[in-house]
Amino acid sequence: MYQALYRKYRPRTFDEVVGQKSITQTLKTQVASGRLSHAYLFTGTRGTGKTSCAKILARAVNCEHPVDGNPCNHCAACRSIEEGACMDVLEIDAASNNGVDHVRALRDDAIYTPSEVQKRVYIIDEVHMLSTAAFNALLKIIEEPPEHLIFILATTELHKVPATILSRCQRFSFRRLLPEDIAARLGYVAYQEGIDLEPEAARVLARLADGALRDGVSLLDQCASSANGAVTAQFVYDCLGLSGERLTHEMLLHIANHDTAKALSLFSRLYDEGKDMGAMLDEMCSAARDLLILRTAPKSGLAMLSGVCTGPEAEQLAGRFSQGELLRMVTILQETMAGLSQTANLRIDAELCLMKLCGPALQTDGESLNARLTRLEEQIASGTLTVQAVPAPAADPTVWEDEQPPFPGDLDAPDAEEEAPAAPAAETPAGFWPDLVSALRAEFQPPVRGFFAVNGPITPVLKDGVLTLAADSEFVKTMISPPEVLQTVGRKASALLGHPVRAAAALQGQQFADGHDRLEDVIARGSALGDRMTIK
Fold first, then answer.
1. Which is it for strands 458-463 and 466-471: parallel, antiparallel or unpaired?
2. Which pLDDT band, with edges at 50, 70 and 90, does 185 fall under?
3. Domains along the chain?
């Protein structure tokens, strides 16, 4: 009968346990010196060796001929325990035996001396699944156990174990395994099984294992069972329904270019090939996270990369995004993946996600506006966005003295030597606000109409063709901020002044407080330059 590889290659000694040397060395020393605890608690994520070490420890404390703290695995006691035939070493699954009655039965049996071996050992896996009453029933015997009794508790959720249990156990925290350690172990298993596993494929499997060796060996078993030849990285992607690093990089490149058509075309091809959409979005999220780390900590963050995006190409791709854009991408991808289990049409949700990623202008939330603004700011700072001078019209002979003109935000006032073009006044003209209030009160209905009064909660500030409605509270600002309200105000103000006026809402003293106002200011000041420049 075929045996799964993760069971066939389960470690049999402490020396065979991968990536937990500090823990295995301590356990070997305790076994060799005889200074054993009556209760152990093994914690850590799945597939890191908790149950394997518990079984090895159960054999080691009962081995007739231990070798430097390791079980010999040849004596009668070791063979009996390994085969599950020893009645004095019991492995209990707390997930299915979590009631107080099960623990009471265990406690009643534990007081008897072992009949076959030296120590009676109880291995309770997933101990956090025990009920509160079961923990209370277990507490007394763990506190004062017989000399022949050893408890080994294992859990993946330490926070669910009561403090009264924690304080009576020796705790060992199993860490997540490094991808290099997992890849090396996969290479060993492949060699023993005669599997032609390429090094790149081993690295991909190690990355997908996410720190759990058992997951990596199970993935290797799945791929090897369907491979006719060598197990390559591309074969791993095809077998597991993943898009792969190259196609993920291509998708991110389309998103960086804001090319929605190509992104949807690539997604359609991957969908037709049967790729798993959840896995594809997860790869994109991991890649966006790697790019964000490269932007934030280009040198110190290399050790934190997941491996989806690495090398010079990843560094070039990271330069195509701003930090605000990458944060927005990760947020959207995580929200989409969280909702996949509840949606009726996975494809529509994934396509909408790609449209949002490729077109920040489709959304007006704070994160999208901040992403657009940070992209613009970084392009200006790096010089990729330049302002190029063009010949001025005959009526306005203004020329730029420098080859590179200043940013539009620096053009609040014209130079004294050049002819100043006609511009709206820097202050609100006399009588303008009462006339505008009369016109607006005829246009609006309550409650908006009530905010527009000569001595009301709004203070008008007219400058550079922008009429800022400075509200005295956040509530007033919210009520006058809808686009239809501001458009009406701008239209009436333009009719009264005889030139175009754009209306904006802000708090008094905080005219450009949020990302929306900052972006609107950049656009307005850029538009004020007219035909004198072009932005490339």
1. antiparallel
2. very high
3. 5-174 (3.40.50.300), 179-240 (1.10.8.60), 244-377 (1.20.272.10), 432-535 (3.30.300.180)
